UniProtKB/TrEMBL annotation:
Pathway stated in the Swiss-Prot or TrEMBL entry: Sulfur metabolism; glutathione biosynthesis; glutathione from L-cysteine and L-glutamate: step 2/2
Keyword annotations of the record: ATP-binding, Glutathione biosynthesis, Ligase, Magnesium, Metal-binding, Nucleotide-binding
Binding-site residues for Mg(2+), renumbered to this chain: 162, 164, 388
Protein name: Glutathione synthetase
EC number(s) given by UniProt: 6.3.2.3
Record-annotated Glutathione synthase substrate-binding domain positions: 223-323
Residues noted as binding ATP in the record, renumbered to the chain: 144, 162, 326, 384-393, 395, 418-421, 449, 476, 482
Subunit structure: Homodimer.
Family: Belongs to the eukaryotic GSH synthase family.
Function of the protein: Catalyzes the production of glutathione from gamma-glutamylcysteine and glycine in an ATP-dependent manner. Glutathione (gamma-glutamylcysteinylglycine, GSH) is the most abundant intracellular thiol in living aerobic cells and is required for numerous processes including the protection of cells against oxidative damage, amino acid transport, the detoxification of foreign compounds, the maintenance of protein sulfhydryl groups in a reduced state and acts as a cofactor for a number of enzymes. Participates in ophthalmate biosynthesis in hepatocytes.
GO CC annotation terms, alphabetical: cytosol
Highest taxon, organism lineage: Eukaryota
Length: 506
């Protein structure tokens, strides 16, 4: 027999060290074959409702594999969830102001671009279009701020992991993960628990931002261009954006191209219109272009420059892309810097409370102190380069090895040091494709990360739209450092909101 036993919330929050009254019982004992049938039904439901990805091992444009997910949603304090939701517009605003401050961006990245070729190429592209004059005043940010909970004296509180300004994924799969858990509750007869799963309209909100940008472009024959990877593993998350745009605005056409195809097929008119397949492009939505792997040659860099030079509204433009770098995040955490951009004292105070320790590693006294801290106690930190997409950070002894190798080199300036956030540990079942559940049906220790989506649409300094639009959650084994679903270590999850209650800390 496979027993789903004890109080329902005790399973959900075991290892989180939060123990509630056993009033939400799950009085179900399932035979092994019944449990396996349930898991297979959930997998089938998931892939038939858009929860799929391309297989990395056996890639095919004609097949999908089920996206990995947790059987149970993860407990999250309602007050902290609402705090993350409420602060997102202020974070959107901060990103916009930072992106338009050339002096600040340069001061943040000047040492990094000396040693990091990828960031240097991005910055040179930025300087090129800036010196020529930006062809498009309108900017669109589709952002995602990621948070983890951190233990403090009176409980657990959200701390920001990072701000994603390019290819902020899981607007669709974040919705799917909540729907998986709703279906699970329905199958278990737990209809009274559905209200604990918050509404999520991330996809609708993100796509409405693209459509509103298209409307501002004011050309009914223009199209949306989505920049994709050569092989799009996360195809459902991308495609459902297209499908939602078609649902909201049936007359609007969407084209998908990778940067190599843009280099070969697109052109820039004398009036700086971006032309693809004979159509003028109104909005370019980047789902690629955030890692060196997406630029195979100078052709891809030329394609990115062509896009940035054009009148098309970019999501993001190169300024927003640079505003999402780790060096910018670290600089904003220094005393007084946040207030340079956010004049409202309450907003800046609320944002600063969510920062964790962030340290520059430049070749100076402060950088030397940060290096010493990391070498003395590497398990307390995360070492981060200027990269997106997962799988790039260093932990534990790898931090010591890396910093030792570049102790007296400018190379260390390309990295930042961040206090490692230690979120509460919960237990869950992780459901993966091609999984033999007979051999792997035990509860696992996991930690979770919450992402909040926001859109900001601006005409120069005039903010036209600034909203929070939805959320996503992913979880990983406590034994894993990286948690990206696309990268292969993380799984989809969703928040199960609980009201504040006394905590028993381990």
């Amino acid at each position: 027999m496979v027993h789903i036993k004890d109080s329902y919330l005790n399973i959900l929050v075991c290892k989180m060290a939060v123990y509630l009254n056993p009033c939400l019982s799950l009085p179900i004992n399932l035979a092994e074959n019944e449990f396996e049938d349930l898991i297979q039904k959930l997998k089938d439901w998931t892939i038939m409702h858009g929860g799929g990805m391309r297989s990395k091992k056996q890639y095919s444009n004609d097949s999908l594999t089920v996206v990995p997910f947790t059987l149970l949603p993860s407990v999250f304090p309602r007050s902290e969830f609402q705090k993350a939701v409420s602060i997102q517009p202020a974070l959107n605003e901060l990103t916009h102001y930072v992106s338009n401050d050339h002096a600040f961006l340069y001061s943040c990245l000047e040492k990094t671009i000396e040693v990091d070729e990828f960031t240097r190429n991005l910055f040179n592209l930025y300087e090129t279009v800036r010196s020529e004059g930006f062809a498009q005043r309108i900017s669109l940010g589709m952002l995602r701020s990621d948070f983890m909970q951190e233990k403090e004296a009176s409980g657990y509180y959200i701390k920001q992991v990072e701000m994603n300004t390019i290819a902020s994924g899981f607007g669709w799969l974040g919705i799917v993960s909540g729907d998986i858990h709703r279906f699970f509750f329905q199958q278990m007869g737990l209809l009274d628990k559905l209200k604990m799963l918050p509404e999520n309209k991330a996809l609708q909100g993100l796509c409405s931002g693209i459509i509103k940008a298209w409307e501002l472009f004011n050309d009914k024959d223009s199209v949306i261009l989505i920049i994709i990877e050569n092989q799009s593993m996360n195809v459902c998350d991308q495609r459902f954006h297209e499908f939602e745009i078609a649902r909201q605005k049936p007359e609007l056409n969407v084209i998908r191209k990778n940067l190599t195809q843009i280099a070969n097929e697109a052109k820039l008119s004398d009036t700086k219109d971006l032309i693809v397949q004979g159509k003028k492009v109104a909005v370019v939505y980047f789902r690629a272009g955030y890692t060196p792997d997406h630029y195979h040659s100078e052709a891809e860099w030329s394609a990115r420059l062509m896009i940035e030079r054009s009148k098309a509204i970019k999501c993001p433009n190169i300024q927003y892309h640079l505003a999402g770098t780790k060096k910018v995040q670290q600089a904003l955490a220094t005393p007084g810097m946040l207030e340079r951009f956010i004049k409202d004292t309450k907003k800046s105070t609320d944002i600063r409370k969510m920062f964790t320790g962030l340290y520059a590693l430049d070749l100076n006294e402060d950088g030397d102190k940060a290096v010493k801290m990391a070498l003395d106690c590497p398990e307390r930190f995360v070492l981060k380069p200027q990269r997106e997409g997962g799988g790039n950070n260093l932990y534990g002894e790898d931090i010591r090895h890396k910093l030792t190798s570049c102790m007296n080199s400018k190379e260390r300036s390309a990295w930042i040091l961040m206090d490692k956030i230690n979120p509460p540990v919960q237990q869950n079942y992780l459901i993966r494709p091609n999984q033999d559940f007979k051999k792997n049906s035990s509860l696992c220790d996991v930690v979770s990360e919450l992402g909040i989506f926001g859109i900001i649409l601006c005409d120069g300094d005039n903010i036209l739209i600034n909203e929070q639009v939805g959320h996503m959650m992913r979880s990983k084994l406590t034994s894993c450092n990286e948690g990206g679903v696309h990268a292969g270590d993380g799984v989809l999850d969703s928040p199960f909101l609980i009201d504040d209650c006394p905590m028993k800390i381990k």
